[in-house]
Every structure is written in C-alpha cells, then in structure tokens.
C-alpha cells in the first residue's frame, strides 16, 4: 500500500461512539414550531358545566410575548452550548404547566360551581414541542441522559402544591375520589398479571424454539396471527368459549371465570404479549456467540450450567427488551378491556366517550399514557444497566 493510500485510509472518519453527543439543533428548531403555534392558539376552554359548549380563551399579551420568546430559547441555546439545552427545555415545560394552572384558575373566577376550565389546543401543542425539546436535550448530552426528565420535578411540585387544582381533569379526579384509585389499581393488576403469564408461557417456548427452526416458525407464526386480530375483536371472540367453559366446569365458575370480566381480559392480554416475549427471546438466545458456548462446553459445564451461566446472562438484555415492549403494549390493551367489564382506566375513557365528556376521557387516557412511559423508562434503565454490566464483565 502506498503512503497516499495509507493517508486516505487513515483519513476515514471513525464510526461515532454509541454515547457520542448528537447535533440536535435542527430538532430544536423544529420543536419551536408547535410551541410558537401553541402560543397563538387558545389555552383554556371555559364551559358552564362538563357537557355544555364553552368559550375559548387565549394568553394575555404579556404572557404571549414571554411564551413566544421561550419557544425559541432551546434552539438558540442549542446553537451555543448543546450541553445546556436541558435548562431552557426544562424551563419551557415548567412554564407551560404553570400557565395551565394559572389560566384555568383565572378563567373560573366568578363562575358557578359546575363550571369547567379545560386545556385547549394551545396547551397541548406547546407542551408537545417543549417535551420533545427536553428529550432532545438528553440526546445532546448522553453522559447525563437523565436531564431529559428534570422537568418532572417542578411539574410534580406544581401538582402536589395544588397549582393545577382548577384544571377540569383534576376536578373530575377529585369528584371520582377512591373510585379512580381502585380503577388505577385494577389497571396495574391486569397489566402485571398478563405480563407475568406471558413471561411464564413465552419464556419456556422461546427456549424450546431457539434451537428448532420449525418450532420457531410455528410458534412465532401463531403469535403473529394473534397480533393481527384487533383487540376488541379478540375480546369478543373469547366471550362464547369462556362462558361455555365456565358452565361446563362449576369450579371455574366458582373461581370467577366467565365470558365477561377479568378472565377474557387476561386471556387476550396474555396472547397479545406473547409475540414480543417470544420473538426477542428466540433472537437473543440465537444471538449468543457459538464460540462462547463452545468455550463453556470445553470447561466441562453441563447443559444446565451453560444455559443459566452463559446463555441466559448474555441473552437477558435483548430478551428484556421484548418484555418492555410487551409491558407498554399491555397498558394500552388493558384500557380496551374495560368494555367487557374488566375495569381499569379504560372505564373513564369509554364513560367519557358515551357522554361526550372530554375531561373523563383524559382522566383515563393521561394516567394510562404516563403509566406506559414510566414502565418503558424503568425497564429501559434495567435493560441498559444489564447491558453495561455484561459489557464490563466481557
């Protein structure tokens, strides 16, 4: 190779490291667009009661100027110091949440007890842009990825301090009281039970199928077929066979198995969660390097020792990714299960749809979305921690 060729080869840019900082300036300017649009749109919908049409209210001129300036601040800071983007992004989310509480409280001054002040389109657009800006701040500073979630601290402080108390969703939550807590607990029980059953069933199936191509094709094909069925259709299809089974076996009927309620909900949710658990399990076990398994065999390990000490630790981070996907999927499917009497946060979603009450819909939808984000974040952290630990061990 000539010196010129060597110089050309050496001039090739190395592949970026996994933890390299990313240039998020374009993303930040794009996030400014919904924030700017949200500042001009109405922020509050004032209605005389929960169901009546109302009046849209925008931001006062002084606050409008401040919000417009705050919308472009993350992008401006991103062009100067990317590692400081988290500061204006966190401030933008905090101001948006604070203004939601301030404007809803101001709108209800002098109104009747049944009046409701809801968040209008401007709030949601602004918070969408500010939230994406906060997420981009974590990408720009991967060594401190947690800065993308710093906005949670002031937001939770405002919520705990009662600043958002006049927002219509929280008003409906107070009116529901312990019933809402019961439905949230039921939602968590449904998700946790279905996820546990899917892991108990899908784990052994994935181990069995990982070394058998035909079994893998059959198992994954069946799980894929279940995923193609709409959740509502699957719940409906389970009503008749479970009702017949409960009538034929009195012990099952005594245990609470019937065509409606928890039994068909858990059955459908477990079937839906099997695909990501199976697929990631098979891929993870097949992805373990053959040389590592041969080395373990050469050390005299038994098949059981190779499985528990070599295969499972190396496959666990990828496998856990499938469990994470299944958990997030189940949070959404559990909401649909309320249609057959299984309870959960979906109860408020469908109650709000029946009565055209958007506040009740949000009372179920917002906690479900936050729950999905929390589950995804917690399992992702566990997945990353296992990956780093195994990387150091290697």
From TrEMBL:
It is a multi-pass membrane protein. It is found in: Cell membrane; Membrane. InterPro entries: ABC_transp_perm/SBD, MetI-like, MetI-like_sf. The keyword Transport applies. Its main location: membrane. Residues 184-383 form the ABC transmembrane type-1 domain. It holds the Pfam family BPD_transp_1. Keywords: Membrane, Transmembrane, Transmembrane helix, Transport. The chain crosses the membrane at residues 26-46, 58-77, 84-101, 121-141, 148-170, 190-209, 229-249, 255-275, 326-349, 361-382. Belongs to the binding-protein-dependent transport system permease family. This is Osmoprotectant uptake system permease. It comes from Deinococcus radiotolerans.
